[in-house]
């Protein structure tokens, strides 16, 4: 009679992703940067690459703040087929050009296994988005590259499922994976998603991989990005992914959750203080 | 100040999927079968194709019950990389052989755009699974074929998002799309998913496409499949997708939600009575 | 290291509520009516008692349809203190008067332990609402009466918690309890709640108590009440709770989910056919 | 046709709770303490009052840490009627005795309107628990006292509903209300609840009332309490409610989320650093 439920632990479980007793946490090296070490990494940029002018403006704004990873989407997974779908290949070329001009690392999303080589040729970090967290052919494809991967948690995925998806990548031989908490879907309508702050220390206990926080998608509201970014660092996050746009109100997507370069500058100061308080640096 | 939320309606909205005032609902023709008409369609078979012996056993069992669509997965999206991933191409060949031997239609899942031609060559209906409901390159790829598509709702996708995903397919020129409700993820642990019975009449009001119900995934418990299948027909479903296995306790996946051929035979009688009560037939 | 979770089964569990192996399901006798037996019970009426004229209109409408239980709220739990809070005691007196005039049974909500004697003096069935499912002093108070209790599931309560709440009532000596599924809170915004159709057969397996369905709150949309009511009966529900209002568009609360007496008459015919199809009657 | 939803804003809305443009946030005075001002308040103690020995041990442990508010439940709302229900009145007397002996303020839960005078006579702050957030008679009863109220968010309640519940209290004339975020129910099983970090800055923008965080219920895991407590302060919380027990493994309830006095001492140092980093003190 009683009450049944599927077992929560899949067997044998994500064994490459799990952290063994007393095992130290992994530090990823990316072109000289170290993610998961003392310094908290910041990745900033617009939701979508719109044109070269916009991307240069952002690169010029973040570089002096000590931010060395530029984000921006060339391929955009959009709920509606009528929404802006990203520039595609020209967007990648803009990213690559700005990367060279400003000496930045670039993280950008790849949506399909067949696009992996092209994206890998233009970017330093491959992002697998929330909607593709269980796109297993894509996970295998990025796992077969030598590029670091930023894996975003599905908005509907448990932490167990999240770690299993990372396991697909590690199993292909690519162990440079970052786990990114970006908010989950709940009943609460005031915010776009509910940022799962518990996930940060939980993942750090259970897995050895670095954990990144995305307070922009995690809140969906510009005015909450700062407080939640500070919270994420206080909880132990190894990095942040922040949407910034030179003109947020004119952004082609996600403008309501993008902050301006001026707001980012102020935020970086605040974040630095919190990082210091928890024994990290920025 | 107040409380913000993203607009629920995407603009211009899934206009090909929406039903216009007074528009009749669509009837899909598939090799002489008509889905969305008076008769409720039943699709039955195991979660995964395991071998020819198993598939012949199922085909031989469902054919005399008047069921003419056989389901079975050759490509299985699995949370863990260590779970059985399906037979792949040999699984498709088994499906195609049984299709010919028993004169059945076959529905099977395709997980990647590059597999679409191969799967389309072996099956009558292409299934896009829950985890791929927002795999937009895949939606475009099945939209470019002339095969009917069974699109399963994401386990944490709103009905608005579901219809937008269908819009991607229709926009490529393929209008033979069935919307499949298969349970959503909620806080309730007693059942694997919460079957969203409201979705059936809601989708039928808002969209002209046929609506299929999957009580097997919608409950995750063999003992609840029957009552929920009856409920789905009473609520107006145009078809059912039911997991049946000759030996449920030995199934390689989802055995706990599979019923036996004997149970299916009994269920078909019960379903027929309910269908008649709501002015349909089986 | 692994992943922890609170045990799902509380010990020793709701032992009075659980159904033992081979135990028959309970039939509640209420003034000659039998709930949980062959006949499906229908309880109908407005969300709130507004005045004598309205309640007489409803009573006159439902009586000829063979409906013998009238619902209506005198005490209304409302999210906002500025919303109509119900007539209170005068509302109870209207209910009692109409009960006598039309020879109907009355079910109405009680919100506070101190109101239990007053409500019990005017009604035949005490309703404990969703927001009070875990108001334990109230559960004990209704458990100490000799009145049948309609216990509504909390909108975000698990079935295990629901049964434990019923256990509080039975433990006080009152075993005439009906479990009412009325929809749960999920991420889906198209409907007010997600009616959990799985809960009906699940509760009937695990518990011996009758299970009632409330498709009005379960959908929140007038146009979905009929299909979901039919679904609930097909799934095995022992009764229905339906909001009906003589003038739904002028209702003081929940008008958007109330049907008219004419719609109810049509629905009763539809429900009768479904009940017959599953071996019940109406 | 389209997609309907109940309006998110209730009219006229919780006008006493909303913060007007340019309005400063409220500082509550409680016996000389000021909540909502520069200093972050910490309230600590066991889930349940067990005996005088236990409560003296806790009082003796927290007092030297600069913590001046002791928590402890005499009335415990428990899912199962077979779980420990609290000591009741003798528990209140223990609290009152320890309050005097150690010169601490006491916060404790009240579950029923009729218990309000008794609890108010023994405590400095009345707690309304999550399960009672929409127990409107109880809200009115605590609103009619002159005691400050700690209102916990329902585990299933939106922030809009939360503020409306506070409005019930303010409307009775009691404006000393603290809003306590304590985690919400989601699909994620790894943690007991999902702490909604977004709620802290959101409530502070929309309302003028102080916001308290409960990382113990918000995580349900002892090992996550510290990181989430730090996160809450970084996000701007005006206070913390922390479960501490002299012997967590022997606690009569919630032991798995209680920390020890030694852990609390270490945590207080960590929290002080974070408070300073965000311009507060502890």
How is this fold's topology laid out?
The structure is a homotetramer of 282-residue chains.
Chain A: E1 28-30, E2 33-35, E3 41-45, H1 52-62, E4 69-71, H2 89-102, E5 105-109, H3 116-122, E6 125-128, H4 136-143, E7 149-152, H5 159-171, E8 177-181, H6 199-206, E9 211-213, H7 215-219, H8 222-234, E10 239-243, H9 261-277
Parallel strand pairs in A: 3-4, 3-10, 4-5, 5-6, 6-7, 7-8, 8-9, 9-10
Antiparallel strand pairs in A: 1-2
- The structural class of chain A is alpha/beta
Q: Strand portion of chain A, in percent?
A: 5-15%
Strand tally of chain A is 10
So what's the overall shape of chain A?
A: globular
Determine the oligomeric state from the structure: homotetramer
End-to-end separation of chain A in angstroms reads: 55 Å
* Fraction of helical residues of chain A: 25-40%
Protein chains sharing the most extensive interface:
A-B, 42 and 44 residues
What is the arithmetic mean of pLDDT of chain A?
94
Strand order of the largest sheet of chain A: 3-4-5-6-7-8-9-10
Reported for the largest beta sheet of chain A, the result is:
8 strands, parallel, barrel
Jot down its keywords.
homotetramer, alpha/beta, eight-stranded parallel beta barrel, 10 strands, globular, disordered N terminus
Description:
The structure is a homotetramer of 282-residue chains. With 282 residues, chain A is α/β, with parallel strands linked by helices. Chain A has 9 helices and 10 strands. An 8-stranded parallel β-barrel of chain A has the order 3-4-5-6-7-8-9-10, surrounded by 7 helices. In chain A, strands 1-2 form a two-stranded antiparallel sheet. In chain A, α5 links the parallel β7 (149-152) and β8 (177-181). In chain A, α4 crosses α5 (159-171) and α8 packs parallel to α9 (261-277). The first copy, chain A, is globular and about 50 Å long. The N and C termini of chain A lie far apart (55 Å). The model of chain A is unreliable at 1-11 (pLDDT under 50). Chains in contact: A-B, A-C, A-D, B-C, B-D, C-D. Chains A and B meet through α5 of A and α5 of B.
């Amino acid at each position: 009679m009683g009450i049944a439920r599927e077992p929560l632990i899949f067997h044998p479980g994500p064994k490459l992703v799990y952290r063994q007793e007393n095992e130290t946490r992994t530090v990823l090296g990316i072109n000289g940067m170290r993610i998961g070490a003392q310094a908290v990494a910041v990745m900033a940029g617009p939701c979508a690459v719109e044109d070269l002018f916009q991307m240069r403006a952002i690169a010029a704004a973040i570089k002096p703040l000590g931010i060395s990873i530029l984000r921006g989407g060339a391929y955009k997974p959009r709920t509606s087929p009528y929404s802006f779908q990203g520039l595609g290949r020209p967007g990648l070329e803009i990213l690559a050009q700005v990367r060279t001009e400003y000496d930045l690392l670039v993280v950008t999303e790849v949506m399909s296994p067949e696009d992996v080589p092209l994206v890998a040729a233009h970017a330093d970090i491959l992002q697998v988005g929330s909607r593709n967290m269980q796109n297993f052919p894509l996970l295998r494809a990025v796992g077969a590259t030598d590029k670091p991967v930023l894996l975003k948690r599905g908005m509907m995925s448990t932490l167990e499922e999240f770690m299993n998806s990372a396991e697909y990548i590690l199993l292909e031989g690519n162990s440079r994976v970052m786990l990114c908490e970006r908010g989950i879907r709940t009943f609460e309508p005031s915010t776009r998603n509910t940022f799962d702050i518990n996930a940060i220390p939980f993942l750090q206990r259970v897995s050895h991989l670095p954990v990144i926080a995305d307070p922009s998608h995690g809140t969906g509201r510009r005015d909450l990005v700062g407080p939640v970014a500070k919270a994420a660092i206080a909880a132990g996050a190894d990095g942040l992914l922040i949407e910034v746009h030179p003109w947020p109100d004119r952004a082609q997507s996600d403008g309501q959750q993008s902050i301006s370069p001026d707001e980012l500058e102020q935020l970086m100061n605040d974040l630095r203080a919190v990082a210091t308080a928890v024994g990290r640096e920025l």
